[in-house]
Write a structure and sequence with these properties.
- The structure is a single chain.
- The chain is an alpha/beta fold.
- The protein contains 11 helices and 9 strands.
- A 5-stranded parallel β-sheet has the order 7-6-5-8-9.
- Helix 2 links the parallel strand 1 (40-45) and strand 2.
- Helix 2 (51-62) packs across helix 11 and helix 6 runs parallel beside helix 7.
- The radius of gyration is 19 Å and the shape is globular.
- The protein binds phosphoric acid mono(formamide)ester and norvaline.
- Phosphoric acid mono(formamide)ester binds at residues 49-52, 122, 130, 260-262.
- Norvaline binds next to helix 6.
Amino acid sequence: MKHLLSLKDLSQSQLLALLDLAVKIKASPAEYRHALDGKSVVMLFEKPSLRTRVSFDIGINKLGGHCVYMDQQNGALGKRESVRDFAGNISQWADAIVARTFSHVTVEDLAEYATVPVINALSDLYHPCQVLADFLTLKEATGSLQGLKLAYIGDGNNVTNSLMLGAAILGAQMTVICPEGHFPDGFAVTQAQQLAAVHGGSLLLTPDVSALEGADAVYTDTWISMGDSTKLSDIAVKFAQYQVSKELMEKYKVKYFMHCLPAHRGVEVTDEVMDGEGSLILQQAQNRMHAQNAVLVTLLS
Ligand code: CP
Ligand code: NVA
């Protein structure tokens, strides 16, 4: 494992090893407090962030490393100088690059031209760090990832793509429920279907909300991702039946609710579900740090 750009680059054993390491780091942080001694990580963000930025910064600090945060005011990627030159220069000082970009091609270019590991901290196509934390959270909540049934409902986006790939690699049963015209990227679907076939998992895509029945957890995300110019007023009616409410969860007997956050309360999910008993949202947020630290320790040791 040289970089983490998409979960599709991981074998099942690599993915399970990352989750196991995250469990260990979470349980015994003192054992890992020198894991990144003397190491520096540059974080490049083209888009806003709360969880990713803070969890990487504090996480790197807890491992004994140091991080440098760069937003667009300090040098827009590819504008003042090429992505290639950015990657080449940063590689002279830093031991890893964490990047949140509009286009996935930019993360791929960084990885091609950097001589240090590159970690995708969200692109238009994938959000692997989020989904590692999500599977860690599901493992904790349900006790085991074996036989997991996960449902995603709402807009098919970067988070959906990574969830489909992660679920497929783990051999889980995944259902993706989206309004017509809002299904996830076809390339990611094909990759996930192929991986699911190899690992004994399944992937169902449907506009039918009743496909939620029997899922262990229902996951949703914003209906309009960063960089998408769609207006909420133009899709609100079409998406209304895909809002996660207590009634919906009770009707289809779903115990757990998940969201990568930031959430739009009263839009894709109700307050009652966000703050309800089955809500895993803060556990997911906490696990971002442990999962990312597992990635850093793996890539930098
Ligand atoms: N879930 C997530 O990536 O949150 P941020 O956009 O706040 O980093
Ligand atoms: N799909 C969302 C995820 C935010 C963490 C976005 O890309 O804006």
